[in-house]
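Side project, low priority. Logging it here so it doesn't get lost.
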Amino acid sequence: MQSINALSLTPQLSNWLANTRQPRILHVFDRSCNLTNERMEILSMVTPQIGNGPFNLVLEEDILLSEYLTVESSISILGDQLTLGDLHVKIVDAKLWFPRPDWEVLQAQKAQVLRQIILLKVPACPSLVSSALLSTFCTSIATADLLGSLTLTQKLAGLGIGLTPAGDDFIMGAVYAAWIVHPFEIAEALAREIANTAAPLTTSLSAAWLKSAGSGDAGVLWHQFFNALVSPNPARVQNAMDRILAVGETSGGDAMAGFLCTMKCWVESEMTQFP
């Protein structure tokens, strides 16, 4: 039996561990293992290289999880201990990590955020759909067009291959932008409805990411990027963006494209209203 400590988890995962009765393994990779429960809620056990996320349980050591686990491995939860096959994870000393970025600061410093963003180049999104569709989707979010956003969400959700299809990643990035450009009551309604519309149309893991974005939560790399946007250092912004772009084969780039496209569409809509 290999014993390992957990470094951190979110309050959401504390509830997951306390209220799960039928856990099972969905996927096993070298540095992550995705679990689900009877309510189709996700827990991702990850190594420090991946780090904190809305539903990540971060382990203390950078071990190869694929050497210990398969999708058939047994799971048991007893108090602050999680046992998966021959891997025993102690959670008692894990620190709480809060996945919600400081949207209030980002909104209060929106002018600084936009100055930084205007210097960045929007990454190319894989040609799954026409660029016109992507641009129209971003414009609908930038202008808080709920009906238009939901109609286009249905076309983008689940579009692509993999555990987080490109269309979903693009949606997620666009939703992050909504939390910055709109008043909270508008952003909350828009983000929630988009996430609820997209989630049934895609994979369980991607749905979990979309629901997290709909609740205003994000992973640690996005936290770092948002913090950089309110700093006076363009190089820090570029470095933080580059770390996101390195995620997956295209996931980080697709999400960043959705974010930057929506932010720039919002600027264009404001200039149209107030020339």
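Brief comment: The longest strand covers residues 2-9.
Revisit when time allows.
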